[in-house]
Amino acid sequence: MKKIILALILLFCLQSKAQSPVIDIPNWNGKTSPPYFYLKDLSHNLDPYVGTWLYTNGTTSLRIVLQIKEQVLRGNYYEDILIGEFQYISNGAELFNSLADLNAYLPSPYYHNIHGNYMPTTYSPFDVVSPIRRIHTFMKDNTGNTLEIQKTSVNGQDAIEILKLTAQAPTVEGQPIYDPVVPCGFYTLVKQP
Questions:
Q1: Is residue 4 helix, strand or coil?
Q2: 186 strand-pairing partners
Q3: What distance lies between CA 150 and its chain's CA centroid?
Q4: Tens digit of pLDDT for each residue in 71-130?
Q5: What is the CB-side half-sphere exposure of residue 109 using CA atoms within 13 A?
Q6: pTM reported for the whole predicted model
Q7: CA spacing 20 to 30 A to 99: which of 5, 68, 150, 182?
Q8: DSSP secondary structure, 162-177, as one string
Q9: Hey, how many other C-beta atoms are within 10 angstroms of the C-beta on 115?
């Protein structure tokens, strides 16, 4: 009897999940939808960003590793998101390295230092607009940051162009003001094998 009840509960859960609407990420209008809908990357817009990417300028480097996490629960809906971690070396000194956290157990994928999936269709901060949709993510490195990511190529090699912006939190008297680890600006990172 317990096995039958367990099977019925499992069947109900699977059927309920299957009936939830699935919306392609770029088609979502950002407004409320039925509970537990699935914001899925049906068009594979996140795929071109997966991998290890490297920016170098003398003894300064920025390495970003990006992956896709599927069907992540976010409040009352599910979504596919791009997650990542990074290493920043300035003048030969490592100032930040969270690459090991990419495979670590975290309570939520949103705890990763890079995460997001928003695909803006309006103003692009990049000079040359890629035919592949750009991704708007968040980047944590002492402050709240925005990271716009766009596909490009450098001498025929796959690359991404990023624009890092800082959204400085309001200061509280007596509290330290933190500067971002990675300076704001544009960076071009080449895909690594």
A1: helix
A2: 163
A3: 12
A4: 999 888 999 999 999 999 999 999 999 999 999 989 999 999 999 999 988 888 998 888
A5: 21
A6: 0.84
A7: 150
A8: EEEEEEPPPP-TTSPP
A9: 21
